[in-house]
Amino acid sequence: MAKIVLIGAGSHVFSKATICDILSYPELRDSTITLMDINKEALDLISTYARKLVEQHGFRTRIESTVDRRKALDGANYVLTTIRVGKGRLPGAPPYMYYGVDLGHNDTIQAGGVFYGLRHIPVILDICHDMEELCPDAWLINYTNPMAMITWAVHDYTRIKAIGLCHSVQSTATQLLKYLGVPITPEDLPEGADDYYTTLHNRVYQETKDISFWVAGINHMAWFLEFKWRGEDAYPLLRERFKDPAIYSGPDAHYAGADIVRVEIFKAFGYFVTESSAHMGSYVPYFKKRPELINKFKLGERKPQNRISEDENLKQQLSSGQKFPIIRSIEYGATIIHSIETGVPSRINANVKNTGLITNLLEGSCVEVPCMVDKTGIHPCYVGDLPPQLAALNRTNINVQELAVRGIVEKDRTKIFQSILVDPLTSAVLTIDETRDLVDRMFKAEKAYLKGFK
To answer: In whole angstroms, what is the distance from residue 417 CA to residue 401 CA?
Structure first.
């Protein structure tokens, strides 16, 4: 019987999906699911949901709940991290617009992503050091951003077996199906689902005979090197479809809004990228460096998310006594656990150390590649060289990640400053002095989390 620990379980949307995913596999229903969060109110809510789900479906799964991290980790087989240190942009941090340019609240690179790393990497490394003592053979499955920086730090500074997971590959495959105009009928919907996207996600998850893909690169900037629909290369059909801007430029093109940036990248570089336009526009220097460009590419029109209403909805559902369906999500975490526990093989995409996997990206960096999973563990697949134009884009982000990881672990403020200096968008917009001012402001705003920097 496996012990599966969710650290940061108070993140209800992710935790609900993960718990459902685990319980969707009959072979995992005898597991212990341990929920841990420092926010007891949020933890109690998700714990109530988990126990209700197990009770309603008559499973024997044991649900544990604790605010004690070491207690949660003791004897674990799998540890999933989905933590957030601090809540959004902190008081006093630079505004969304800085020197007249939209630099965004990024969680991957730029100043936002690097400072996300400054807050999260020390905590994740502390979790790993606890694991080295309490569950040294467990797998760490990290979902916390900045994914590449965190996974890189864990690989270089701990002895824990670890991968980083993101749903951008599966989500983009879903999006590409939508762009192809794949029809969905009511009878296609899984039991308990009622929307188009859930059904498309279900198809992508199963990767049926209708769809296949081969994706590699870095987190949030991986590339669909192959995308096939019913055995045929789907890229010619996509190019034809994208001749009509209405398909990708409207407010409902993507769940986050217009998807113009990704289509522009596709047209210019030849391959579709895994992260949304709202994020991809921040990873390259072409789209966010002037206000008129932000408007042109509709990068200021992101749809708002309301976490408070999601929490209230869950409370109402629990109090109403409704029966909760078990619908498997597109997340890979439970799939990995199932394959290791049962030996049933699966293929996923994960963030791992580049040990010659992508041969024209930096050795030792964090790359996102296909992986095979079986009873012996997780086995990253060899990719070889990316097309050179794609590797060139990836390297600009890896430069930031490498300097940031070293600066965070070594508590070296100069390396942090330099990591943001080489950021593609920041360097296209700000002078050295302006970047120094930005970094100084961020250090002041987040000083409560940044102890010991020289």
So the answer is: 12
User: What DSSP assignment string belongs to 269-310?
Assistant: HSS-BSS-HHHHHHHSSSSSSSHHHHHHTTTT-PPP--HHHH
Catalytic status, residue 167: yes
Confidence of residue 207 (pLDDT cuts 50, 70, 90): very low
Q: What is the mean pLDDT of residues 291-308?
A: 74
Q: Tell me, what amino acid is at 215? A: V
pLDDT tens per residue, range 397-435: 999 999 999 999 999 999 999 999 999 999 999 999 999
Q: Are 219 and 351 in contact (CB under 8 A)?
A: yes
Q: In the numeric block, which tokens belong to residue 97?
A: 């617009």
What is the CA 117 to chain-centroid distance, rounded? 14
CA dist 217 and 247 (Å) reads 26
Contact 253, 259 (CB under 8 A): yes
User: Using one digit for the tens of pLDDT, what is the confidence trace for 59-116?
Assistant: 999 999 999 999 999 999 999 999 988 765 555 566 666 776 666 668 899 998 999 9
Catalytic residue from among 12, 120, 155, 167: 167
Query: Looking at this protein, which amino acid is placed at residue 272?
Result: F
Helix axis angle, 12-23 to 333-342, nearest 10°: 30
List of residues 6+ apart from 3 with CB closer than 8 A? 31, 32, 34, 75, 76, 77, 78
Strands 366-374 vs 377-380: parallel, antiparallel or unpaired:
antiparallel
Sketch out the chain's domains with CATH numbers: 3-166 (3.40.50.720), 167-311+329-454 (3.90.1820.10)
Question: Across the strands, what pairs with 257?
Answer: 254
Of 138, 154, 31, residue with least CA distance to 76: 138
Asked if 238 and 272 touch (Cβ cutoff 8 Å), the reply is yes
How many helices (H) does the chain have, and how many strands (E)? 18, 14
Q: Percent of the chain scored above 70 by pLDDT?
A: 89
- Any residues with CB less than 8 A from the CB of 88 and at least 6 apart, and which? 105
Long-range contacts of 278-283 (CB under 8 A, 24+ apart): 278/302, 279/106, 279/108, 279/220, 280/220, 280/221, 281/104, 282/103, 282/104, 282/106, 282/108, 282/109, 282/110, 282/425, 283/108, 283/109, 283/220, 283/221, 283/393, 283/397, 283/424, 283/425
